[in-house]
Amino acid sequence: MFIANILKNYLTTFGTYVLLMGRSFARPDRFRMFGKRYIKEMAQLGVDSIGIVLLISFFIGAVICIQMKVNIESPWMPHWTAGYTTREIMLLEFSSSIMCLILAGKVGSNIASELGTMRVTQQIDALDIMGVNSANYLILPKILGLVTIMPFLVIFSSTMGIIGAYATSYIGHLMSPDDLTAGMHHSFNEWFVYMSIIKSLFFAFIIASVSSFYGYTVEGGSVEVGEASTKSVVSSSVLILFSDVFLTQLLS
Amino acid sequence: MIEVKNLTKNFDDKAVLCCINATFETGRTNLIIGQSGSGKTVLMKNLVGLLEPTSGEVLYDGRDFVKMTKREKVAMRREMGMIFQSGALFDSLSVLENVEYPLDMFSSMNYRDRVKRARECLARVNLLDAEKKFPGEISGGMQKRVAIARAIVLNPKYLFCDEPNSGLDPKTSLVIDKLLSDITKEYNITTIINTHDMNSVMEIGENILFIYKGRKEWQGNKDEVMDATNQKLNDLVFASDLFKKVKEAEQEDAAANGRA
User: Fold this and answer.
1) According to DSSP H, which parts of chain A are helical?
2) How many Å lie between the alpha carbon of A129 and the closest alpha carbon of chain B?
3) Angle CA(B126)–CA(B192)–CA(B183) in degrees, nearest 5?
4) Nearest-angstrom CA–CA distance, A125 and A51
5) Closest to B93 (Cα-Cα) out of B150, B14, B23, B168
6) Are B58 and B6 in contact (CB under 8 A)?
7) Cβ contact (<8 Å) for B104 and A30?
8) Nearest-CA residue of chain A relative to B102?
9) What is the per-residue pLDDT across A38-92, written as a single tens digit (0 to 9) for each?
10) Residues of A in contact with B77 (CB under 8 A)
11) SS3 of B13, please?
């Protein structure tokens, strides 16, 4: 009985999510208004996240490089191992999956709390009364905006991680820049860049749609908005981790 | 004119509204009154389509809103304006942009005409000097006035107000009441106001519907309220000392006139 109830709750939530997405992916009432919001969301969700993405990527790139150099390299290992592993980790997992987990916290809570506040202050009801498809007007630009900007964030993240790795070489003098460059060039497969971008597109959709769902369907007051914000981050993160396994298997 | 016929609304098995029959006339301020939790807001949400009635009809000039298709409802909603209890202004837009929003969304006006029309509406509610401010920067009373301007910008045929005076001081409440009453006459619209403010009832109550525990208990106008014999209505109206004293004074006057 207990399991049946849990299953029923999950299915109900999933059904509500699918219906909301159905309403969101409709033809916008006014393309001019949609365009305005689309650009605004790209700026708010994506461009405003560039700073944190660059900062985290720089330091993680540097730390990964140091750890690889200190803990993995030995006289029995090739001199380019640290550079090679840093590149692979940054490109394959950090810039797409881990960066999206971080963005699920920043962007996801932002979306859920914005929509949740709009719901409890009746701003969404006001849109509905006017005859506006509120789900389409509010959610679709967020999803498309984040999906559009995410590949750029992934590329910036990878690049900054590699710059971080070079910083350990030039500033920390942990290894020679030539060794690092040799590792960066070793067995480079450009498909990994595309794979990282493809994965990030799925993750961007998960972050924007799941957070929008929790924010849009809030009932109550400020406490419930806070709960929705937390739920959106947790659910987005779990879904990103699950889908990462499948996408990695599928794309590798 | 809006007619409600046998409107019932249940949440799960609990009946929140039961067999409501009422007529709200055009060009008059129609008030729905009742205690908190009596079903006023649920009734209004059923009227505007934010909730689906369990049974019954909501007729807008003879057109049944409940039976309309989704597309017809969207078209119908463009004839409605609504003022929410909280104002429900869009936080990210300035006062002028809030008022301009429905025009931007639904009219084919160019930018200059849209701004001109939005400014006309802001002038109507005496808020032209606040057009550049954001909702968070203005008082509750001003927010309500902006909400009124936004609600009338598309020249609606039906205006709904959910407790427009809540959280406002008596003087500002009077300003809002007067504004709503004047706009109703000026644009000849059907205005329905949810309230439990007895000052509003006495000020603008041309057609009053009293709801008690989800049922229609009484219908009349402001002149009939004081002499109504419905005990539940009297409990609400004379809960305030002020109205008790007014009633006593009226009775004393009548007695004195009788003796004379």
Assistant:
1) 2-24, 31-41, 50-67, 81-89, 99-103, 109-120, 123-130, 134-170, 177-185, 191-216, 222-251
2) 6
3) 30
4) 35
5) B150
6) no
7) yes
8) A130
9) 999 999 999 999 999 999 999 999 999 999 888 877 778 888 888 999 999 998 8
10) 128-131
11) coil
The identity of residue A216, as a single letter, is Y
pTM flag (> 0.90): no
B6 three-state secondary structure:
strand
Rounded Cα gap, residues B162 and B144, in angstroms: 11
DSSP code, position A70: I
Rounded Cα distance between B21 and B213, Å, is: 15
Which residues constitute the domain of residue A181?
2-251
Total tally of structural domains belonging to chain A: 1
For the stretch A69-83, pLDDT in tens is: 888 777 788 888 889
**Closest-approach residue (CA) in chain B for A126:** B88
Which domains, ranges and CATH numbers included, belong to chain B? 2-79+158-229 (3.40.50.300), 89-155 (no CATH)
For residue A191, what are its two tokens?
A: 């498909």
Distance CA A71, CA A59 (A): 18
Could you tell me if the ipTM is greater than 0.95?
no
Tokens 């009742």: give the residue. Answer: B34
